[in-house]
Write a structure and sequence with these properties.
two-stranded antiparallel sheet, four-stranded antiparallel beta sheet, alpha+beta, single chain
Length: 79
């Protein structure tokens, strides 16, 4: 598990994002898709071409019968 997830989102032995309605929000940037998969925040069948990519924010829904990714957000600096 990534140090970022452990330091920011580990609560009572479980990774939990900021609750926004039905969704969980994670403001990350140093955690790879592989680490997100290992933490069970994204499904195992994600596109492996993104294994080393580090999204800046993630919104998921764990309330349904399966894990749903609502948004993967990549911030870009303005020129």
């Amino acid at each position: 598990m990534s140090e970022e997830l452990e330091s920011k989102y580990l609560k009572n032995g479980k990774i939990q994002g900021q609750i926004i309605g039905e969704f969980e929000y994670f403001q990350i940037g140093a955690t790879t898709f592989k680490q997100l998969c290992n933490a069970k925040l994204i499904p195992e069948n994600y596109n492996s071409a993104f294994t080393s990519h580090k999204p800046d924010r993630l919104v998921i829904n764990r309330n349904s019968s399966k894990l749903d990714i609502i948004a993967v957000i990549e911030d870009k600096k303005k020129w």
